Amino acid sequence: MSFSRIVSSAAWVPRGARAVTTLKETIAAQLPAKRDYIKMLQKEYGDVVLGEVTVDQCIGGARGVKCMLWETSLLDANEGIRFRGHTIPDLQKTLPSFTGPAGAGEPTPEGLIWLLLTGNIPTKEEEASLTAELHKNGDIPPEAEAVIRGLPHKTMHPMTQLKIGLLACQPESKFARAYQEGTRKTEYWDPVYDDIISVISKLPKIASLVYRCTYHDGKIVEDRGSDFSGNFCRMLGYNDPSFDELMRLYMVIHSDHEGGNASAHATRLCGSTLSDPYLAYVGGLSALAGPLHGLANQEVLRWIQELQAKFKAEGRAVTAETITEFAWDTLKSGKIIPGYGHAVLRKTDPRYTCQREFGLKHMPDDELFKIVDTIYQVMPGILTEHGKTKNPYPNVDSHSGVLLWHYGFTQYDYYTVLFGVSRAMGALSQLFWDRALGLPLERPKSLTPEWIENFAKNTKK
């Protein structure tokens, strides 16, 4: 029987018949079965070889090496991401929505958090209980707010501000305090749960303060009568139901993407040292701030706007033909096409597809949206002909910046902050289970170039 099936059956009753329980109570009921399952895996299959590691993989960033337990999501090269076994279209049909019954609007992040942590689709009542818990934990200490407001907003990158803001909240860590007090390892899960909920809850307030102080007047208006995303939008200064829906979709699809990506892995690595979730997720945010990880959507926008400017100056329309010309100019100059290709995927990213569907519903006549759609028609063929891209199809970043721009969210440098608020849901859900299951400190073996050469020569003899 599978891991998820065992734990889901531990206290399972039909959704409509379930008594409303808190998320923490639901998890507590699952803990014994989950711990037994991990022990069984190690006892029964501990010596099974999962895969081999080549020299290319060792030197090339451990790409594709099967060496990490990650239960919240799984990425298939052809199918895309599954969250606890559910595809994005599945989530859009089954997770609760704020605007009506499941399927009536975009799924809420709190519904996804419940799913990631428990493996269960929550009822509307369970989702509402988590919304209340997130709102309850959403305030930040006055000292932390003062730190954020005192930062040099015009010269400091928003991601740096976000990390400083979260670090300023770290003294509230219940896990750090519990560890110092000698809490038993089997009980780590309780304060770690409190911490991950606290971090997820506080990030929108921290992020909104960064946004309002950097680009506006610093004033924050909250709406705790709305859901998690709606309140975030209000704090950012937006009061458009359509933008609320975009934020729900954005947060859900950016929440988790297996454990090997840099931000998720950095969070997990830091947490494995028993750093508390505040400190661990600052590690994840530091990885996300790197240009190879979290900046791609703004690079897409820049590329499209450069394309627009070039052909406007030449008095030419943006068409499939001119896009093709610009794409080849980009490739021949040694650059890449931003928003295309993926380290794992070999088909169109389903996160791109759901954003395209959102655009067709909410902004079909938007100029940038139409350009992105035309790029989608021609780019796979161009990249296939070019021959240097394993995956010639669009990824999540190909669309997200354009959708944000449509709503007047034009501050490029801030886009990664939205990513950071979203990714906390997946990275910290897994971090919770790392501590609840007693997973050890990460400590892979490193090799020198000389050792690799000698080993390879001896192997080939």
Automatic annotation (TrEMBL):
Family annotation (PANTHER family): CITRATE SYNTHASE (PTHR11739), CITRATE SYNTHASE, MITOCHONDRIAL (PTHR11739:SF8)
Gene Ontology terms describing biological process: carbohydrate metabolic process; tricarboxylic acid cycle
Record key words, sorted: Transferase
Protein name in the entry: Citrate synthase
Single Gene Ontology MF annotation: acyltransferase activity, acyl groups converted into alkyl on transfer
Any GO CC annotation of this UniProt entry: mitochondrial matrix
InterPro entries membership: Citrate_synth-like_lrg_a-sub (IPR016142), Citrate_synth-like_sm_a-sub (IPR016143), Citrate_synthase (IPR002020), Citrate_synthase_AS (IPR019810), Citrate_synthase_sf (IPR036969)
Keyword Transferase: yes
Family in the record: Belongs to the citrate synthase family.
Gene3D superfamilies to which the protein is assigned, alphabetical: Citrate Synthase, domain 1, Cytochrome P450-Terp, domain 2
SUPFAM superfamilies: Citrate synthase
Matches recorded under PROSITE patterns: CITRATE_SYNTHASE
Keyword Signal assigned: no
